[in-house]
Amino acid sequence: MMSSGFVVFRAGVALVLMCSFYRSTEDPLPELSPQQYFSTLQPGKASLAYFCQVGSLSNSVFLEELKEAIRPLQDYGISVSKVNCVEEEASRYCGKEEGVMKAYLFRGHILLREFPTDTLFDVNAIVAHVLFTLLFNEVKYVTTLEDLHSIENSLKGKANMIFSYVEAIGTPEHRAVMEAAFVYGTSYQFALTTEIALLENIGSENTGRAHLYFLHCELASDLTESCRTTRMEQPLTTLNIHVFIKTMKAPLVMEVAEDPQQVSIIHLQLGLPLVFIISQQATYEADRRTAEWVAWRLLGKAGVLLLSRDSVDVDIPQHANVAFRRAEKEAPVEFLVLNDVDLIVSHVKSNMYIEETQEDEDGDEEGPDLAIQDDEVAETVYRDRKRPLPLELTVELTQETFNSTVTTSDSLVLFYATWHAVSMAFLQSYIDVAIKLKGTSTILLTRINCADWSDVCAKQNVTAFPAVKLYKEGESPVSYEGMLGTKDLLKFVQLNRISCPVNIASIQEAEKYLRGELYKDLFSFPSVSVLGLFSPAMASAEEHFREAGKRLRGSIITGVYSEDDVWILSNKYAAPLPAMLLARPREGGIESVPLATAPVQEMVRILANAPLEAFPEITVETLPAYLRLQRPLLMLFSDGSIDPQYRNAALALVRQKQLEPFTPCWLNFNYI
């Protein structure tokens, strides 16, 4: 885990980000006597306490869930304690019978609410109930359409509202809404309901799952008109709600006059595509109106920009009126001729990757029996019931089958726990990878539920969930350390399908390798390819390079060329042997790095840093890699894409080695 402190120097545009590192430790559940507990309470600070009789073995399941809730509640400044009721310290919060033990939420010494433990049936319910109580003013609970309209009318011309429907209090969806309200409650008015009738009254076609709506009341200048509404189509998770709200905060339409391939706005950072309405001076007003119509139709799904044909130095086809760019970094810009708004919207929706919730076609699926709240609730009742995953695409492992599977086949293993929310969310990405690789991969995708087979997971040194490891016969398992998403995990699998390192047989093959052409079926273009150059007599240096490449298997492509004519590549790229070439096909550059007597560990460091850019953009995905350098970040802030003038100036300083103590980088502050 990392903590970061930010220091901004107003005299320039640079920011030095100093990072300190610390080990995360498991948070124990404090056990106190009533007197000790009440002495710890501080004015204004929230605290959740479970009062129980000393030596009681009841509610052990609840205590396990309470321990899981310690870390997320601490993130919101809420302490958690277990209070042992002892005879010598009488307290009115200690029940006389074990069956009536309760949890209590305090702010300072003021009791806010008491909870019977059967309402706090899992970690989601605990976090949701506590935040719901603390956010009483930020989240209005409504039961009728009149209540909702009353809040809406009070906000018109002033502020926007986020309205959500959840099936029950304490569900994962309820927790996600509460966590969003904790972050955004000062910016938006939140309203919540569990009444299906209210959802039907506002015109929802599907009342079988949770919903969230953004009401643009701030734009409603006429108090007699309803607030414009945008529905979130993704499942209600904390991350999805955050992404949705971020898109609502972004400008409806942005005007740009630069190469659309270089445009960088918040939608790309959030994984959403961009639509460019191509404009010219003579038709500007009409083009602007078209862009706004398209933007409203695609709000929350794509970013819409007005691209000036007159001022951009790009070869735009004469008849093209729309450009489309997918969210993937390598994706090219597509120029189109689409003559009405419906065609534009249809094209975007059919070409973007959205994990859509599967709807029931017959609508007769029975809902859960909410009266059944036993110890299986967290695993079954409130799981994403409307979205069955094709788990059959992966092999479920047990204690009996684990060793025989991973020792007889190349196996990717997901270690997860059904009670762990992040595990269950990542399981969707894991299944998505299985879908994309169906029928093409030589690697077997498997999974093991550590809630059932904890001994197996412990023997594999799995101490946190989710975890992914690749097992190959005769080799040590490789741990996946990338982002918890489909794209990065798929890249990890594809890289592991390639020999490590690749044995290059000829000069021609080496050139194709450096141009990124050997593995077109696996990647559009690898970000960087590394080729080690050795003469046949340099066996020791070559072995060190091979070992370094194996240690980084799954994160970078490495190749080796050690034939008699290696001097041809050595002379061409001014690389005295032994050396390695770092090729970035998309940028068209090849850099040589002398290896000389570099030990294995130094080669590992060089290879690990090979994909890093000299002047990178800092994003959620790239930040961890640059923090691992353990150097301060010297950061340039930009309102949109980086100006080429600034980029060239920064790269010049890098080449002159004037910034060596730092990692120079830039940040689009529209993403902050």
Automatic annotation (TrEMBL):
Gene3D superfamilies: Glutaredoxin
Limits of the TXNDC16 second thioredoxin-like domain: 132-251
The keyword Signal is assigned to this record: yes
Domain Thioredoxin, first and last residues per copy: 395-494
InterPro entries: Thioredoxin-like_sf, Thioredoxin_domain, TXNDC16, TXNDC16_2nd, TXNDC16_3rd, TXNDC16_N
KW Coiled coil (keyword) present: no
Top-rank taxon, per record: Eukaryota
Annotated signal peptide: 1-18
Keyword set, alphabetical order: Signal
TXNDC16 N-terminal domain: residues covered: 29-131
Residue ranges annotated for the TXNDC16 third thioredoxin-like domain, each copy included: 252-342
Protein name: Thioredoxin domain-containing protein 16 isoform X3
UniProt organism field: Mesocricetus auratus (Golden hamster)
Gene (UniProt): Txndc16
